[in-house]
Structures are given as C-alpha cells and as structure tokens.
Write a structure and sequence with these properties.
Structural class: alpha/beta
Number of strands: 15
Distance between the termini: 53 Å
Mean pLDDT: 95
Radius of gyration: 22 Å
Shape: globular
Helix content: 40-55%
Strand content: 15-25%
Low-confidence stretches: none
Largest sheet: 6 strands, parallel
Amino acid sequence: MERLIHWWFAPKFPDLQTKKVLEYKPESFKNLVNDRIRTWLIHPIKRRLAKYYLLFLQRFFGIKVLGITGSSGKTTLKEMIADILSTIGETVATFANIDPVFNIPTTILKCKPATKYLVLEMGVEYPGDMDFYLWLAKPDVGIITNINSTHTEFLQDLDGVAKEKAKLIQSLSKTGYAILNADDKEVVKISPKTQAKIYWYNQPDSLALAENIAVSKDFKTSFNLIIDQERALVTLPLLGDHFISLALAAITVGQIFNISFENIKSCLENFKPSPHRMIPIRSKGDIVIIDDSYNANPFATIQSLKTFSGLGEGRKIFVFGEMKELGNYAVRGHEEVGTFAAKTGVDMIFSLGDLTLHTLRKAVMGGISKSNTRLFNNKASLINHLKKSLRPKDLILVKGSRFMAMEEIVEAMA
C-alpha cells in the first residue's frame, strides 16, 4: 500500500515529503476536504502533466532549463538570472519561496511554446528532493551557489547536503553547463561528478570579475565589473558583498547565452531585491534596521554579520532568532554565530529561542558584555526592551529562521 501511495504522489517523490503531506491535518472540515482533493488528485496529476509538458517543450520548441541550488542565495540568484535572460527571450521562473515540490510543477505549467528559458529554484530539505526535481525537469544548466550545513536535521551532515546538491550537476549531459562557485570548497569537491562543461565564478580566470567592492552610505554595493576587455562601474541596489558573488554567477549565465554587456549591467542596476534580505530601513531617531529576517543558517548569518560590522558609526545591535533544522550541528552552528558576532564588534545581542543561549555564551566569551546579551521568552518583551535600549545612530540587524517569523520584530520597530 505504501509503495502504491508513493507511486501515485509521483515516482521519485521523497519519502519524508510523503510523510509530511500525509501527516498534515487542517483544522476545519472544509479545509480538510480541500486539502485531500489537492493532495490525492490535483497535485499528482499536475506533476505528471508538468513533466511531460516540459519534455514536449524541450523537444519541439527548444526551451532551455536552468536549475539553481545552494545553501543560500538561491532566490536572489534566480531573480537576477531571470531578469538577464528576459532581455533576449520570454523567461519563466519559480515564484517567491513556495516549497519546490509544489512550486516547480506549477511553474512548468506556466510556460508557453514561446517561452525560451525556464529558471527553477531547487532547494533541498530532505533526502531524495533533488531526485524528484530532476524527474520533473532535466536542466541544461546547473548552478550551485554554495554548500553549507543546512537542513542537517534531515540530511545528517555536510556530506549529506553536498551529496544531495551534487545530483543537480551529475544530471547534466556533456552538452550542458555547470556554473560553480570556485570560492566554496565543498562545491569544488563535488565538481568532478559532472560531465558538463564547467564555468567557474569567483576565480581569476572566470568569465566575469569584480574589483573594488564598496558599500555606499545609502547601503548599495558597487564594484568594477570586468568582462573580456570591457569594464564598468556597477551599483547593485543590494547590501553586502556576498551579493556580488551571486551577481557574478548571473553574469556567467548571461555570457553563456551571449547577452550584451549593456543589458547585463542594466539588469543588475535595476534589480528589485526580494523582501527581508538585507533591506535597510531608516527609523525614527536616525536608527537603521537591516531587515534580513527571511531565513537563517550559520553561514548566511555570518555573511550578514560581516556586512553589518562595516556599516555606520553607531552601536551594532544583533536581534537573532534560533536557526532550525540543523540536527547535530545545531549547538555548534549557534556557537559559531556568537563567536563571529563578538569578533566583528557587535555591541548587543537580543535573542529568541533556547538554542541561542549558545550564541550568547560564546559572544560573552568573545568579549561582549554579559549585560548586553539577553534571551527573551517572546517577541513582545524583546521589542519592548529593544525600544528602551536604543540611541540615535544605532544599527539593528534582524535575522532568524523562517519558523521564527522575525519580520514581526522589524515591522514593530520600523
């Protein structure tokens, strides 16, 4: 019976995804009925329609499929690539951050015969997720931003994360392209697993280079872009040099598809940032809130802190929500954040979630005054204490896992 259910949901549908779907029980009877219709009828049929429709588009209309995975930066990179490709042909990309299990089939079915490019965000949470995505869509181009200890509650450890993400480039044919981050040792380690042509970014002989990276007073990030013999100053409406790495990956895609230097530059400078990703908000009293509340893992949090440390002249206050789904890496991951926060000169840390006690402890060991660190039981008390603690020119970084809904703190403080 279990095999039959698994097959009906879709061949290659991950076991843990099946379990999650079956365990979900809406509160009202109406919602329960709607959910069961979607679960047992609409979604299984939609997945099969999407798979074979895409095969049809690939074979008869030549649509190019790009798959993006990585531990962080996927959504921003997806939007950058979609913007750049749209300058030369109709482009469809996965919307927002809906679970890819549902998002990818829906996105495929939005394509038309006139669609030239399909950009799919392929975030993995459970073992077998990537197998399911690749059953749905076989990419022509695979991009990996980075590989870090995320979702290790289900993927066990860093090797488990790397193994799952590596399946993307393993699936590429000899005529495909793998765009890989040379600055990430785990990405470099898995690169021999692909037979596709590899284009590296973040190394001296890459197709595109970035020099003289700087953050302006209005919280934009500029750099000198070098492609072949052309050079130009590019100003991204994004805060943080880690976005430059994503821009270089997107530029590499543009180079592969022969998009002009001018179009690439224009797309990057007119890019619209996704919500809650290093968004600066000016508040009363000359206070600046950096809203990076969408999600968090240790690597991404440390990257945000690195940028945060170089901003402004006032005190740096880090508002931190517990990071989820880290499994055996949970304690060490939270400790690493605390150690780095102290190292980069954070003045105060206010946190939510029991695991952040490890962050606070390491921060104090690193030199932050114990009186400037505090764990709160709820958001209301944290917000109240934070408001009382503020001084003019203070800077506040808000970050935490999606589960913690840290954007509610941003909204209360803005």
